[in-house]
Write a structure and sequence with these properties.
38% of the residues lie in helices and 23% in strands. It is an alpha/beta fold. It binds acetyl coenzyme *A and pyruvic acid. The site of acetyl coenzyme *A has 15 residues, from strand 6.
C-alpha cells in the first residue's frame, strides 16, 4: 500500500507539530456523482424529470455509490424526482442523496423549510452545504461567525437525529482556510459535533492548485477522525488533479460528475478521476468490471444531457486513443502500447487511426488492411504521395472516410464501373421573389446505355442528388436505402473572397452505417458534385458487398 508522510500544524495555536504522521492512501474511495444537482447548475443544461431519471439509472448502472438527485424544495422538478426515483428505478448500487443548505441565519431547525424539504425527500442520506469562509458568512449571509457555527451544528444534528446520514459540504473551504483557518476548521468541528458522517472540503470557486490542496487536506486529515471528502470545481483546470491529490492524503469520498458538468467550468470529471483512481492508483471505486462501460456511460449521458463532449477528453473521448502522426502509427503497428498510456479497452474505448498528410506508409497500410484492401509497397507509396498532394490542395481525409476508401481502392487499379459521368448542369431559377427552384441535369453512361435525367431541388446538391438517383435507381434499387444526412461547406482561403476555394463534406448513411465524402474546388457546385459522386459510389459498393 502507498503511504504519504506529513507534518501537521495545530490550527488553533498556529504551532507546527514536529511529529510526522503517516496517512495511508485508502484502499477504496466512495464515488459521489452530483450531475443532477451541481451538474445541472451548468449553463445550457436543463433536464426534465424523465431525463433526470435516465441519468440516475445510468449512474447506478455504472456503480457509483451516491447520486445527488437535486435540491428538494428548490423547484417542483426536484420534488417530483425524489418522489418518482425510488418508485421507478431499482437501484442496484447507488444511494440517492437529497441536497440542501443549513437553516437560515437566526432560524430554528424545527421550522426551517429547507431542512423539512430535505427530510421529505425521504432519502437515507442528505448533503448539507454550509459556509466555511468567514468572508461569505459576513458578506453573503450577513451574519456572525458564531451564528454560522450554530446553523451548521444544529442543522446537521437535526437531520442525524432523524436517521439521515449527513454529508457536510463545507462551501469555499479552501478559500476559507486560506483566509481564516481557525474559523474554517471550527465549521468542520461544528459539523462533526452535529454528527456528520463525512466532512467534504469544497473548492467552490475552483481556484486552488494541487500544492495548496495538499497542504490544507493534510492539515484537516491530521485534525479530524471523521471521513474526509472533497468537491472541486475546475476554474483553475485542476479539479481532477486536486481530487487525486486529496485521495493520496487519505480522502475517501470524491464528489464530481461524469463528464465534469457543473457550475461555471464544472466539477471534478469522474470519467477521468475514476480510471485514474482505479487503474493508476489501484484504489477501489466503482465495481471493477464496470470500468469497461465508463466510455459508453459518458457518451450516453452526453446524449441525454444534450451537450457534445470534448473529443479530447481523457480516457473516454473519441480522440483519446486516436493516432494521426505517421511515426506514432508505425510504432503502434509494432507495439500496441507504444503511444497509449493504458489499453483503451479497459475503459471501453478503442484505438483508431486517422489518415492525413501526417501519415506515413504504416498508417496507409493499416487503413487499407482494415478495409480488406491489399496494397503493394509501391501502391502504398503512390497513395501516400497522392494523399499529401490532395491535402495540400485542401482535402481533409481524416474526416472523409468514404473518399479515403475510394482513394485506396483506386490505388489498386480499381475504378468504379457503376456509371460514368458525361456531364452535369445546374440551373438556378428565380421565378418571383418568393420562389427559387434549382434544376439539375445529369448525363451518364451505365451498362452501355446513355442516361439523361433531371432533378429539381431547393439547392444545387439537392437537385443533383435527385437527378443522379432518377438516372441510377432503375439500375441500382439499393440507392433507395442511401440517404444524405449532412452537408457542410467550409471556405478554405477566405482572403480570396468569393473566388475562394471551398471544401464540401457530405455525410451519408444506409441501414447499417454511415460514411463521409469530400470535394474541394473554387466552385461550390463542383466541390459538392465530387463529394456527392463519392457518396453514391461508396453507397453502391456497400450494397454490392451486402
Ligand atoms: C455552492 C453551491 O453550489 S450550493 C447550491 C446552490 N444551488 C442553487 O442555488 C440552486 C437552487 N437554488 C434555488 O432554487 C434558490 O436559490 C433557493 C430556493 C435555494 C433559495 O431561494 P431564495 O429564498 O429566493 O433566496 P436566494 O436564491 O436569493 O438566496 C439567498 C438566500 O439564501 C441564504 N443562504 C445562502 N447560502 C446559505 C447557506 N449556506 N445556508 C443558509 N442560507 C443560505 C441567504 O442568506 C439568502 O437568504 P435571505 O434572502 O433570507 O437573506
Ligand atoms: C457544495 C458545492 O457545490 C460547492 O461548494 O461547490
Amino acid at each position: 500500500m502507498l503511504r504519504s508522510t506529513a507534518r501537521t500544524t495545530d490550527t488553533q495555536s498556529g504551532l507546527t507539530m514536529s511529529a510526522e504522521i503517516d496517512f495511508a492512501v485508502p484502499e477504496s474511495v466512495e464515488i459521489y456523482d452530483t450531475t443532477l444537482r451541481d451538474g445541472s447548475q451548468q449553463e445550457g443544461i436543463s433536464l426534465t424529470v424523465d431525463d433526470k431519471l435516465r441519468v440516475a439509472e445510468a449512474l447506478d448502472g455504472l456503480g457509483v455509490k451516491y447520486i445527488e438527485g437535486g435540491w428538494p424544495g428548490a423547484n417542483p422538478k426536484d420534488i417530483e424526482f425524489f418522489h418518482r426515483a425510488p418508485r421507478e428505478i431499482r437501484f442496484g448500487n447507488a444511494t440517492l442523496v437529497a441536497f440542501g443548505s443549513t437553516m437560515r441565519p437566526g432560524g430554528d431547525v424545527n421550522s426551517d423549510d429547507t431542512l423539512r424539504n430535505m427530510l421529505d425527500a425521504n432519502t437515507e442520506a442528505v448533503c448539507m452545504v454550509a459556509k466555511s469562509w468567514d468572508y461569505h458568512v459576513k458578506e453573503a449571509l450577513r451574519t456572525t461567525l458564531d451564528e454560522a457555527l450554530r446553523m451548521a451544528e444544529e442543522s446537521v444534528r437535526y437531520l442525524v437525529e432523524r436517521d439521515r446520514r449527513v454529508f457536510f459540504d463545507a462551501e469555499h473551504f479552501f478559500d476559507g482556510y486560506k483566509n481564516n483557518p481557525q474559523f474554517a476548521m471550527a465549521v468542520l468541528r461544528a459539523a462533526q459535533n452535529g454528527g456528520a458522517s463525512t466532512l467534504v472540503l469544497c473548492d467552490t470557486n475552483g481556484g486552488s492548485l494541487p500544492f495548496e490542496v495538499e497542504r490544507i487536506v493534510r492539515e484537516v486529515k491530521s485534525s479530524f477522525p471523521t471521513q474526509i471528502g472533497v468537491h472541486f470545481h475546475n476554474d483553475s483546470g485542476c479539479a481532477t488533479a486536486n481530487a487525486l491529490t486529496s485521495v493520496g492524503l487519505g480522502a475517501t469520498h470524491v464528489q464530481g460528475c461524469i463528464n465534469g458538468y457543473g457550475e461555471r467550468t464544472g466539477n471534478t470529471d469522474l470519467s477521468v478521476a475514476i480510471p485514474n483512481l482505479t487503474l493508476k492508483m489501484g484504489i477501489e471505486t466503482i465495481p471493477r468490471e464496470k470500468i469497461a462501460i465508463i466510455t459508453s456511460v459518458s457518451r450516453h449521458l452526453a446524449e441525454v444531457i444534450n451537450i457534445a463532449t470534448d473529443p479530447q477528453k481523457p480516457y473516454v473521448g473519441t480522440s483519446s486513443f486516436t493516432h494521426k502522426a505517421g511515426l506514432h502509427v508505425s510504432a503502434i503497428a509494432r507495439r500496441k502500447d507504444a503511444y497509449e498510456h493504458i489499453a483503451p479497452e479497459l475503459v471501453g474505448n478503442g484505438t483508431r487511426f486517422v489518415v492525413s498528410e501526417m501519415a506515413g506508409r504504416s498508417t496507409v497500410a493499416i487503413k487499407a488492411s482494415e478495409l480488406g484492401i491489399d496494397l503493394t509497397k509501391e501502391q502504398i507509396a503512390t497513395v501516400l504521395e497522392h494523399l499529401k498532394t490532395l491535402e495540400h490542395q485542401g482535402f481533409h481525409f481524416e474526416t472523409a472516410d468514404g473518399s479515403m476508401e475510394l482513394l485506396l481502392r483506386r490505388a489498386t487499379g480499381w475504378n468504379q464501373n457503376f456509371f460514368e459521368v458525361e456531364s452535369f448542369r445546374v440551373i438556378d431559377d428565380f421565378r418571383d421573389n418568393s420562389e427559387q427552384l434549382t434544376e439539375a441535369t445529369v448525363k451518364l453512361w451505365a451498362n452501355g446505355e446513355r442516361l439523361i435525367a433531371t432533378g429539381e431541388g431547393n439547392g444545387p446538391v439537392n437537385a443533383l442528388d435527385g437527378a443522379l438517383r432518377r438516372a441510377l435507381t432503375p439500375l441500382y434499387s439499393g440507392l433507395n436505402s442511401i440517404h444524405l444526412t449532412d452537408f457542410k461547406v467550409r471556405v478554405l482561403d477566405s482572403s480570396s473572397g468569393t473566388g475562394a476555394k471551398v471544401r464540401v463534406l457530405i455525410d451519408s448513411s444506409d441501414e447499417v452505417g454511415s460514411w463521409t465524402t469530400i470535394g474541394v474546388s473554387p466552385n461550390v457546385i463542383d466541390a459538392s458534385w465530387q463529394a456527392l459522386v463519392d457518396s453514391i459510389v461508396i453507397g453502391l459498393l456497400r450494397t454490392q458487398q451486402g
